[in-house]
Design brief:
It is a single chain. The chain has about 200 residues and is mostly beta strands. The protein has one domain. About 5% of the residues lie in helices and about 45% in strands. It is built from two helices and ten strands, in the order βββββββαββαβ. The strands form two sheets. Strands 2-3-4-5-6-7-8-9 form an eight-stranded antiparallel β-barrel. Strands 1-10 form a two-stranded antiparallel sheet. It is globular and about 50 Å long.
């Protein structure tokens, strides 16, 4: 789950001005971050919109509820579908817990808060979906204050094998995911580029 990110984006503590490039072309040139926004593996539906830059990255570990439902592509087959996301801990790239997520509500250890709403989702039967969240409320300052979109991608985990064959059966399962935080591109002076984001 560790991602290769430029030194400018490596830490949420002292993060310097976000990454320096728009994330609108692939492959990325040197000195740019590994911006998953344009990784061709990621469906366009869950990429942050053009005109946003990568501010930071957190790894999440949480718990979700899965329900056994009919496969929309084959009515004779049952598949596990995530029906509730309970959220969990968010860790920085050094493994320290810096925030918690409860569904669409995010809270940092230092009191910063972020509220989001899902705007796109790519289902992955038996696994946690990849989701693009849009900010609907945030406190000023810090990483959360500058965020407009969050990508939940690279999800791992899902329900273990079950002997149940009845539609409606439920199971809780742990998962991990990468969360990439994006803010808008803005004209900056040299002094402004030296400003710090922090959690």
């Amino acid at each position: 789950m560790r991602s290769v990110i430029s030194l400018a984006c490596l830490s949420l503590i002292g993060l310097s001005g976000g990454c320096t490039s728009a994330t609108d072309g692939w492959p990325l040139g040197k000195n740019q971050s590994m911006a998953w926004n344009v990784d061709p593996v990621i469906p366009r539906a869950v990429r942050a919109p053009t005109g946003h830059v990568l501010l930071g990255h957190l790894t999440g570990r949480g718990t979700a509820t899965f329900t056994l439902q009919a496969d929309p592509r084959d009515a004779n087959r049952l598949i596990w579908v995530m029906t509730d996301d309970h959220g969990g801990e968010l860790l920085d790239d050094t493994g320290n817990v810096v925030a918690h997520r409860d569904g669409t509500h995010w809270a940092a250890e230092n009191g910063q808060r972020l509220t989001t709403e899902p705007v796109a989702s790519v289902s992955r039967p038996g696994h946690v979906p990849w989701v693009l969240y849009r900010t609907s409320g945030a406190e000023s300052g810090g990483l959360f204050g500058g965020t407009q979109f969050v990508e939940q991608i690279h999800t791992i985990g899902g329900p273990r094998r079950s002997t149940s064959q009845e539609a409606g059966a439920q199971m809780q399962a742990e998962y991990t995911a990468d969360y990439y935080f994006y803010g808008p591109i803005a004209a900056q002076t040299r002094l402004e580029r030296g400003a710090n984001y922090s959690l």
